Every structure is written in C-alpha cells, then in structure tokens.
C-alpha cells in the first residue's frame, strides 16, 4: 500500500498498530505538527475528544485510564504543548495508571537550530515515565514499518506494567512536512512512501509482551510477626478488594477500607477517622498491621501505624506508601495471595469489637450531621451515599476527606491522590464519564475553577458535578495557618468571589443552585444518568463547616469514652 508522503505513512501505521492493541479512544489538542496523527486517528474511526488546553486533554485521558484500566491516550503538537502534560504525567506515575503521551516533534536538525516551536522533548518526562521512545521522520527507509509498529507495541507494554508498575509512557514522533495526506501541500513536496506498511495477519499486534506475575519475595525473618490481633488497612492499589474482604472475613481480621480502595462492604470498618480521634482506643490496640496499597486521605491512619505493632506493607509492584515511617517489612506480591499464605485466624471477638464500635460511631455521626441546620461538607458526602450514581470522581482537599469519612457503600470511587493536586478534576471527570455512564463528581470551588478549561472541548458526556462553594480553601481552616499566618484569607483561603452560574452559562452547562442537602439530593437524583453535563451548586458557610467537624470529633470522643 502506498501513501502520499512519509509522514502520512508513519502516522497511519502507528495508529493501525495502536488499534491492534485495543485503542478505541484518544484525546487531542489542536496543533500543526501533529496533523498526520490526528487525521490518521480520525480515518481509523477512533473516538476522539478535542481540548484546547493540553493540560486538560491529558487529565481527560487519565480519566479514561482510571475508568478502564487501559492506557489513556493524549496527542499534542510540539513545543510548550508537551510541557503542559506534566501534571497528569506525575499523577499517572505516582498512582500507577497507564497513560500514553503521543507528542509530535520537528526533525532533529530543526531542534538543534532552535527553530520556532522546538525544544528538547525527548527526555522531558524521564523521571516520571516508564519509558521514552523516539521515532524519527518517516523517510524512505524500507524498514520503517517494523520500527514504528515495534515502538507502539513496546509503549503499550510499558504503560500496562511490563516489567514494572503501570504508568505514563512517552512516544515522541518527529514529522517532516507535508503532514497532510498529499504529496505537495503548497509549501513542501515529498515523494510517495511505497514501502510495506502492513501489520500482522488477522489484526494481531506486531509484538506482545507477556504480563507475568512479579516474582514473589518471601518476607525476611519470622512471618509469625503477623500473628496475634491483626488489622488490615486497605487503600487504593492493584489488587482485588472484594477477594481481600472475603479473606479477612473468613479469618476474622478487621479491614479498614478507604473509600478509594473500592472494597467497602458490610465487613469493612469505615469510621476510622473518628475512631482514632484521640489515638487508637485501648481495646483496639493491634499486635500487627498490614497496609495494602496506598492509605489515606485521613491522616489519622498514622495513629494506627504508630502504636508500636509491626507494620507490613504489601504491594504487587513494590510501591510502598510508608506514610508514618514505621514500615518494618515490605512485600512485593499480590496482597490477597500474601495474606492467604500468612494471615492467621483471629481469636473470636477481635473483629466483632471493631464492628461494634464502628456501627455505634457511624450512627452517632449520622445523627450529628442530621442535626445540622445548614449544609456542610460532611452532610453533602453523607447524602451521596444514597443517591443512584455508578461512579464517583472526587476532588482533592476537603471533598475527598469527607467522602472517605462518610461514604459507606461499596462503590467505584476515583480521586487524583497520587500527588494530590487540585488540578485536573473536571477533565478527569469527563474522561471517567466517557467510559462510565452515571458518573457524579464532588468538588470544591477552587478546584472547579482551577480546571474550568476542561469545558473548552468539543464533546461533553453526561455527568453531574456537585459543587461545594464554601468561599475558598476551607481545608486551611483546619491547619496551623489559620491561627498563625498573617493575611490568612488573602494568602490561603483565596475566596474566588465568582458567580458560578455565569461560568456554567459560558460553557453551556446545566446549572442549578440549591440551599439544602435535600434539594441537592433531589437535583442530583433527577439529573444523574441523563446526557447533560450539569452543575449542582450548594453553598456552605466555612464557619458552619468548621463547627460540624469539631462537633463530629466531640461526638466520637463521647462514644468512645476518651
């Protein structure tokens, strides 16, 4: 098969190989040098979303990865466009999420001459990417087909975790002009590319790298350190949370399951943030603790890890999150397989004591939230527990903390907690909603504004965004800055003072303003599952919010008798 020029041949071959590896969607940001790639993706019938802002484009692709476990794909032109991918790259790295960065580049001699819109793109993501692959201009080299297809195959393999954890992979592709599918674009002419560009028979990928379970590393020393009264902290990670909970239930082991673990069920303890309000109660003191995946966002988990009991971290890829510096043993293995081998049967009543206190405390917390006269962040999070969404995307700062403290249902919940930035929330939500109908988002006012460029795109899936407008960064009210920093409101809470209805109208979003939790629940319930992207704004007074948090801690202390 001939192609009108080398760049078109290279782009079409790359896209064909990507579809053989399962590509069905990509996010693109407009640009000239990436033209051949964009046209090839469109010709191949790949579902495309177009974003003006490259940072938003990358986070939308990250949302695809979060929703499917498959590599999200983002395409940009050359120059500073590439640098704008960095926030999503560092999030994908820390969160071990597969992300493919297809960045168009100019030929090497143009980069050396410092011509317009060039920079050293090849190594920009080196500290955070699983691999950096470079493909030169698609000249008349007859071996181009195997070079291009091999690079794509390698990129998919690295993004999915071979030979380590999943994460971002950078495929930098230098294109000669013409980048449109003609031999002469009026500025530059080129010869047809007539060499072989066919892929494997039957639509098979060019190369497949087997995904093999990482080698088991037997823990050093006496595994009986896991004996006695044992507790499991289950965070976000690469494991089966349902299987973990079933194992723990059989052996009588309490499981403190974070909202992001995806494993909250009837056996899980979910009130730990308030259980540990004054430290770990005497009757819950463990003899050993196993941490699975990444714990958080509650910082009070550290109080459990600092009791002096041996702490073992287990992660399939060795991505240990030693938040308190107390890890005694790190095990690189599938957590469920490790616990099947090593977790002892617990004494009768150990798990029951945790559940008894958890249930008593949950009821007391709910009663206190219900008694609040005006809306609060904890009240919004608790109301989401009973609404008919299928997936929940939560912003950093207070929203994810409230969801972790007050959401109890077994649910699919995602938050960009790898590096916990407030950037990219709306874009990630769009990416998740592309793949998971019935998605709801929970966000504060600053995070919402920070990523409002997400709505500068050509397609918006149906979703509901619950916007908590508390007049700035309410999280800082809980930090020492609130007491000791001069000009606290100006430098830290940074009240945006914006009318969100104007922003919604500008971006053609559905919008409703509510003044109660009941009205919020009604609005979300009527909107979720429709094809409209809508915002439900609920105002929250920061002093009320701070008050309910203090009240909930006091309730917990009273229930626990501490």
Overview of this protein structure:
With 562 residues, the protein is α/β, with parallel strands linked by helices. Helix content is 36%, strand content 16%. The protein has 21 helices and 18 strands. The protein has helices spanning 6-20, 35-43, 54-68, 80-83, 86-95, 108-112, 144-159, 241-251, 272-275, 301-305, 335-342, 350-370, 377-384, 398-406, 425-435, 445-450, 481-484, 488-493, 500-506, 517-527, 542-560, and strands spanning 25-28, 47-50, 72-76, 99-105, 131-135, 168-174, 230-234, 255-257, 268-269, 288-292, 311-315, 327-332, 391-394, 412-415, 439-444, 463-469, 510-514, 533-539. A 6-stranded parallel beta sheet has the order 2-1-3-4-6-5. Helix 7 links the parallel strand 5 and strand 6. Helix 3 (54-68) crosses helix 15 (425-435), helix 13 (377-384) crosses helix 14 (398-406) and helix 13 (377-384) runs parallel beside helix 20 (517-527). It starts with 5 loop residues before the first helix and ends with a helix. The model is unreliable at 219-224 (pLDDT under 50).
User: Unreliable stretches, pLDDT < 50, 5 or more residues?
Assistant: 219-224
What is the topology, as strand order, of the major beta sheet? 2-1-3-4-6-5
Q: Which strand-content bin applies to the residues?
A: 15-25%
Note the total helix count. Answer: 21
**What is the CA–CA distance across the termini?**
77 Å
Q: What does the radius of gyration come to?
A: 26 Å
Mean pLDDT: 91
Instruction: Characterize the main sheet.
Output: 6 strands, parallel
Shape: globular
Helix-strand makeup class? alpha/beta
Total E-strand runs: 18
* Proportion of residues in helical segments: 25-40%
């Amino acid at each position: 098969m001939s192609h009108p020029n080398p760049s078109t041949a290279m782009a079409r071959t790359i896209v064909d190989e990507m579809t053989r590896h399962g590509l069905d969607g990509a996010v693109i940001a407009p640009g000239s040098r990436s033209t051949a790639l964009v046209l090839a993706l469109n010709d191949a019938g790949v579902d495309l979303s177009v974003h003006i802002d490259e940072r938003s484009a990358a986070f939308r692709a990250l949302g695809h990865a979060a929703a499917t476990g498959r590599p999200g794909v983002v395409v940009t032109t050359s120059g500073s466009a590439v640098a704008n991918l960095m926030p999503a790259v560092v999030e994908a790295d820390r969160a071990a999420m597969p992300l493919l960065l297809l960045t168009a580049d100019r030929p090497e001699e143009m980069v050396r001459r410092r011509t317009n819109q060039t920079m050293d793109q090849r190594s920009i993501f080196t500290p955070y990417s699983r691999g950096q692959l470079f493909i030169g201009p698609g000249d008349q080299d007859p071996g181009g087909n195997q070079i291009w297809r091999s690079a794509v195959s390698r990129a998919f393999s690295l993004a999915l975790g071979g030979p380590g954890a999943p994460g971002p992979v950078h495929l930098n592709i230098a294109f000669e002009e013409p980048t449109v599918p003609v031999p002469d674009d009026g500025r530059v002419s080129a010869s047809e590319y007539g060499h072989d560009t066919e892929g494997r028979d039957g639509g098979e990928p060019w190369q497949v790298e087997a995904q093999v379970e990482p080698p088991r590393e037997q823990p050093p020393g006496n595994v009986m350190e896991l004996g006695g009264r044992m507790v499991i902290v289950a965070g976000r990670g690469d494991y089966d949370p349902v299987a973990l909970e079933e194992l723990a239930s059989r052996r009588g082991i309490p499981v403190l399951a974070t909202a992001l673990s995806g494993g909250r069920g009837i056996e899980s303890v979910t009130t730990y943030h308030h259980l540990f309000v004054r430290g770990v109660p005497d009757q819950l003191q463990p003899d050993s603790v196993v941490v699975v995946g990444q714990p958080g966002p509650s910082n009070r988990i550290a109080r459990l890890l600092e009791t002096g009991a041996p702490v073992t971290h287990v992660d399939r890829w060795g991505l240990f999150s030693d938040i308190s510096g107390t890890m005694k043993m790190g095990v690189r293995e599938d957590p469920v397989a490790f616990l099947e081998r090593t977790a002892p049967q617990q004494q009768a009543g150990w798990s029951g004591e945790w559940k008894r206190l958890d249930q008593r405390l949950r009821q007391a917390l709910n009663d206190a939230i219900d008694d609040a006269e005006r809306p609060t962040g904890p009240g919004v999070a608790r109301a989401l527990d009973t609404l008919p969404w299928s997936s929940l995307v939560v912003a950093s700062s207070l929203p994810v903390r409230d969801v972790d403290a007050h959401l109890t249902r077994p649910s699919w919940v995602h938050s960009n907690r790898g590096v916990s930035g407030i950037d990219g929330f709306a874009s990630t939500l769009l990416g998740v909603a592309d793949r998971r109908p019935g998605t709801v988002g929970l966000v504060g006012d600053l995070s919402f504004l920070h990523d409002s460029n997400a709505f500068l795109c050509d397609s918006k899936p149906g979703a509901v965004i619950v916007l908590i407008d508390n007049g700035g960064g309410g999280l800082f009210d809980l930090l020492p800055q609130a007491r000791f920093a001069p000009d606290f409101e100006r430098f830290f809470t940074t009240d945006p003072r914006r009318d969100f209805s104007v922003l919604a109208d500008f971006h053609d979003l559905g919008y409703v303003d509510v003044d109660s939790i009941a009205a919020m629940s009604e609005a979300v319930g009527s909107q979720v599952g429709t094809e409209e992207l809508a915002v439900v704004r609920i105002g929250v007074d920061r002093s009320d919010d701070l008050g309910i948090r203090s009240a909930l801690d006091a309730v917990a202390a009273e229930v626990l008798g501490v």
